[in-house]
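batch_manifest entry 22 of 60
target: TBC1 domain family member 13
source organism: Schistosoma japonicum
requested by: lab member K.T.
priority: normal
notes from requester: please return tokens only, no post-processing; we will run our own comparison against the previous entry in this batch. if the run fails, retry once and flag.
--- input ---
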Amino acid sequence: MKCSRHEQILNIINGENVNIEELKRLSIDGCPDSNGIRSRVWKFLLNYLPCNFEKRQERVTFNRQQYVGYVKEFVFESCMADAMPADHPLNLEPDGNWITFFRDNEMLLQINKDCQRLCPDFDFFRRPTEFSCFSLFGKDVPVGVLRRRGETSTLQSHSLNKNLVGVTNMIRLSTYSPFQPNCRLSSGLVSQFEEEK
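--- output ---
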């Protein structure tokens, strides 16, 4: 009995030793998006993951520890630094905390736009992340969701209409926002790239 291409790819990437040549042959026309298969295939093809199972587990453990170290160093420690006493939203100092906050928001908005321009129906953008900050650092670390900073909101606009007597009425115009996602995760779940300190 012949296996489907999907099953063949799964058998290869779940095996003790991954046959890269066979994986390349099977994935040349693309690979399935479900259950994170595409990302795992790319990790093998880019030599991010070793072919041997034992070495693979060691590499994954090492990379996760390294990632936790980077997050602690660049996110938590930099955010916990005391703010300058004169720092406020209108401060024009180039190294002020508010300037950094606003620059980060611009970058988050661009990431939000780029993710939606990609293929938002891909499994990667719809599923919750496996390794949230809560699972890495515990519940005692205050973590917010970047989605709240990156999402845009539409301002309500009104049009003024004067009648013959001179009475001014406001007419509410309908608005459309291309940045509102079609599908949201249920509360408590965080998708990829959405956590912040």
